[in-house]
Amino acid sequence: MGKLYQVRGIVLSTQDFQDNDRILSILTPSRGKVTAIAKGARKATSSLRSGTQQLCLSRFLLYEGKSLATITQCQVEDFFGAVREDLKRLLTACYLTEIAEAVTVPGQPGYGMFKLLKESLSLLAREDPFIVTRAFEVKTIGLLGLAPRLNLCVSCGASLDWQEAVAVSPAAGGTLCSSCQGRYSPEYRLSKEGLKIWEYLTRWRGESLSRLKLSTRCRGELEEVLPAYLEYYLERKLKSRILLHL
To answer: Does the pLDDT of residue 246 top 70, yes or no?
Structure first.
């Protein structure tokens, strides 16, 4: 028999169901990803309407079911209104929630990802969406236990022989010296500036990112290698990424 329980969560995605219902994927700290139905939530008069929209941080009262939980009550905690008012920020937020949904497991605590997503959505309202995105990707890679080795060659342990750039390989798990390049596919080029920014974001703890100033070259490198690194291990393409280039 099902039971009632309370959770605090961020709505990652929604799907219309039947005439007026809405099915939600919710990221929660204690239960990971929860799939729930909000009956009648699409009605203009529904008390569930506002708190069950994508990107809402809400408190939910749910009734546990066999396959789906049922939302009986919800209260909005943060609507992230400033993010919704700017198309670039909104599309970026959708990309972040797609990543969160891809890496979160139902039934397993998701404290780290919940905290990261909540902080990133708050930062997104006032800071450069590009930097927030790159920080989110780097921290997600770390949460997955996939943080690369960036100070030495991951294959042989040799020092990096810098010229203009070094190779970074998701398959190898980090940077490669000139002798080991070409053994792992795919490989990406990263300048010393790009490497330093990656290392900085690995240590990032949620503080402001506004002091970071990236060259055009560095931005291009990180925009290529960080999503590719994630997609390699997720074994899937992140669809929302395409929208960021429209």
So the answer is: no
Could you tell me how many residues make up the chain?
246
Strands 69-78 and 32-38: parallel
12-60 pLDDT tens trace: 999 999 999 999 999 999 999 999 999 999 999 999 999 999 999 999 9
Q: Rounded distance, CA 197 to CA 194, Å?
A: 5
The pTM (predicted TM-score) of the whole model is: 0.94
DSSP code string of the chain: ---EEEEEEEEEEEEEETTTEEEEEEEETTTEEEEEEETTTTSTT-TTTGGGSTT-EEEEEEE--SS-EEEEEEEEEE--HHHHTSHHHHHHHHHHHHHHHHHPPBTS--HHHHHHHHHHHHHHTTS-HHHHHHHHHHHHHHHTT-PPB-SB-TTT-PBP--SS-EEEETTTTEEE-TTTTTSSSS-EEE-HHHHHHHHHHHH--S---TT----HHHHHHHHHHHHHHHHHHHTS--THHHHTT-
Q: Is the per-residue pLDDT at 73 higher than 60?
A: yes
Q: What are the φ and ψ backbone dihedral angles of 39, each rounded to 5 degrees?
A: -75, 130
Percent with pLDDT over 70 in the chain: 99
Cβ–Cβ < 8 Å for 60, 201: no
